[in-house]
């Protein structure tokens, strides 16, 4: 048997990313349920209220962002608990690859299967809320940075609670306060664009928040997973 | 290259009681050690501590005279761990699971076919893992051992649910590993089922 002496960091990252994406594709309910929840509730609001254009454009960004966060919270429980339940987490920890890198691969796969579909479907919701094309583009930009930041922040909550059964509520309580800045800046940036104000500062903040979360979330999650798996 | 695993005064608690206390041994290339004991005596916990999955309250695990806490990556490059949970994804087939394992550790993919052949898994390699019988799952889990040439095998009840043929195949694999100067720590309820030179630690 021959084993390569050099552990390739990229091969470990790719293997983990591809396995998790493949896993989500083989369990489409994990992927579709939060997405259907997001679409159903956001699409139902205009029927329940006075759906004048002015009112829809005023409340639309807030509703879209609140529902994006709530539907995202539904997906977080499975981020690490499935691996803990079937014993895969032990093998991931025992891999010679750096654990924060494998955690980052899992976070990217989570965003790819939860955040990206939400971004892809969001223009339809934007049309329901009578947004202009340029406003929809701003919404997509905020969702791009915002959902990746949600995956990063959610990873910390999910890793802290792997040893607790049915921890979805606890994860939500842990991470929701840290997600509030994303909600405020995400919704407000779209709202400001609708009133003709500049949105670049909002997008700068969201990208900075995303980079800040990227700098510590994989390390914090990896440490929590090591402790939680003991 | 000669390798050495040193366990020094390993002690673990469960609540306020000792699970086991003061376990010490040295394992060198070509050595097999069996850990036996009743259910709940701490066999799995000891293996997890030796693997570095949990920090012992007291004591130290060293690989080639270096503590594994400070030398984690090198140590993990040298071990193969088989736990009682299989650590394979139920929705993925055996071959998909093994390919992931090989890519994660940078092993050659050609080894997968050899492993499937040796453990008679060729005909079921594309079936999702969750649809296999308990014995087939255990064989798929053991196929990991053939993906690389890890010096140290840490095996938790590797023969549970295996039929006679698979049991014999596993014993052949183990004997080859030991003859090739490998090291093995194996937790089992049936120490008499393993031939050859071995040491036994009995937990109470």
Mind explaining what this structure looks like?
Chain A is mostly helical. Chain A has one domain (9-228). Helix content of chain A is 83%, strand content 0%. The radius of gyration of chain A is 19 Å and the shape is elongated. Residues 1-5 of chain A have low confidence and may be disordered. With 204 residues, chain B is an alpha/beta fold. Helix content of chain B is 30%, strand content 26%. In chain B, the strands form two sheets. In chain B, strands 6-7-8-3-9 form a five-stranded parallel beta sheet, with helices on both faces. A four-stranded antiparallel beta sheet of chain B has the order 2-1-4-5, covered by helices on one side. The longest helix of chain B has 16 residues, at 164-179.
Give a brief description:
The complex is a heterodimer of chains A (230) and B (204). Chain A has 230 residues and is mainly alpha-helical.
In terms of topology, how is this protein built?
The complex is a heterodimer of chains A (230) and B (204).
Chain A (H helix, E strand, L loop, with lengths): L8 H18 L1 H21 L4 H24 L1 H8 L2 H6 L5 H30 L4 H28 L7 H27 L5 H29 L2
Helix pairs in contact in A: 1-6, 2-3, 2-6, 3-6, 3-7, 3-8, 6-7, 6-9, 7-8, 7-9, 8-9
Chain B lengths: L3 E11 L2 E12 L3 E5 L6 H9 L6 E6 L2 E2 L4 H6 L1 E4 L11 H12 L4 H9 L15 H9 L9 E5 L7 H16 L3 E5 L11 E4 L2
């Amino acid at each position: 048997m021959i084993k390569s002496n050099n552990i390739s960091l990229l091969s470990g990252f790719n293997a983990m990313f591809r396995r998790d994406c493949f896993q989500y594709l083989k369990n489409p309910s994990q992927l579709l349920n939060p997405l259907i929840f997001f679409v159903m509730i956001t699409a139902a609001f205009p029927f329940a209220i006075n759906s004048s254009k002015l009112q829809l454009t005023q409340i639309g960004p807030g509703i879209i962002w609140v529902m994006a966060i709530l539907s995202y919270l539904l997906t977080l429980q499975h981020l690490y608990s499935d691996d803990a339940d079937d014993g895969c987490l032990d093998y991931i920890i025992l891999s010679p690859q750096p654990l924060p890198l494998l955690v980052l691969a899992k976070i990217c796969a989570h965003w790819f299967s939860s955040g990206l579909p939400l971004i892809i479907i969001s223009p339809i919701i934007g049309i329901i809320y009578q947004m202009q094309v340029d406003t929809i583009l701003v919404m997509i930009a905020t969702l791009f940075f915002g959902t990746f930041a949600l995956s990063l922040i959610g990873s910390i909550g999910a890793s802290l609670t792997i040893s607790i059964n049915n921890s979805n509520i606890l994860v939500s309580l842990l991470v929701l306060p840290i997600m509030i800045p994303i909600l405020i800046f995400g919704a407000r940036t779209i709202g400001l664009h609708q009133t003709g104000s500049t949105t670049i500062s909002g997008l700068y903040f969201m990208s900075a928040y995303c980079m800040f979360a990227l700098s510590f979330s994989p390390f914090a999650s990896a440490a929590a997973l090591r402790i939680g798996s003991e | 290259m000669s390798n050495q695993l040193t366990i020094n005064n390993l002690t673990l608690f469960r609540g306020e009681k000792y699970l086991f206390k003061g376990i010490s041994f040295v394992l060198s290339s070509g050595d097999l050690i069996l850990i036996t004991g009743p259910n709940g005596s701490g066999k799995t916990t000891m293996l997890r501590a030796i693997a570095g999955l949990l920090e012992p309250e007291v004591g130290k695990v060293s690989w080639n005279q270096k503590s594994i806490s400070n030398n984690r990556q090198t140590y993990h490059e040298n071990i193969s761990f088989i736990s009682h949970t299989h650590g394979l994804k139920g929705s993925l087939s055996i071959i998909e699971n093994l390919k992931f394992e090989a890519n994660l550790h940078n092993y050659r993919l050609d080894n997968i076919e050899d492993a499937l052949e040796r453990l008679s898994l060729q005909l079921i390699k594309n079936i999702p893992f969750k649809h296999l019988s308990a014995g087939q799952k255990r064989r798929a889990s053991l196929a990991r051992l053939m993906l690389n040439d890890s010096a140290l095998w840490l095996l938790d009840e590797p023969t549970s649910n295996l039929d006679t043929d698979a049991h014999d195949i596993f014993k052949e694999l183990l004997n080859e590993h030991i003859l090739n100067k490998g090291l093995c720590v194996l937790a089992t309820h049936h120490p008499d089922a393993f031939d050859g030179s071995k040491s036994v630690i009995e937990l109470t």
